[in-house]
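Internal tracking record. Fields below are filled automatically when a chain is submitted to the structure queue. Please do not edit lines marked as system-generated. If the sequence contains nonstandard residues, flag them in the REMARKS field before resubmitting.
Queue: standard
Priority: normal
Entity type: single polypeptide chain
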Amino acid sequence: MKNVRNFWIDVEVDGRQVPVGMGPKPKDGGMNAEIYIRDKGSIKKAVSITGKAVGDKLILSVHCLAGEYIQIKSER
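SYSTEM-GENERATED OUTPUT FOLLOWS
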């Protein structure tokens, strides 16, 4: 397993040669990621992912277009 920061994201996309992996550098750092989808010619935000550090706790929140919400809490 790699050395993971508070949060880490790996992304692989068809047609791209190099996958992307990243996370926040500071120990109290967080992250935001948005995933969009095309729907009948328009573009909608399908998923919003937010990671934040609150003291010794890490909170990862996932909001979906259809209204689903997931929150994962952990300790460093």
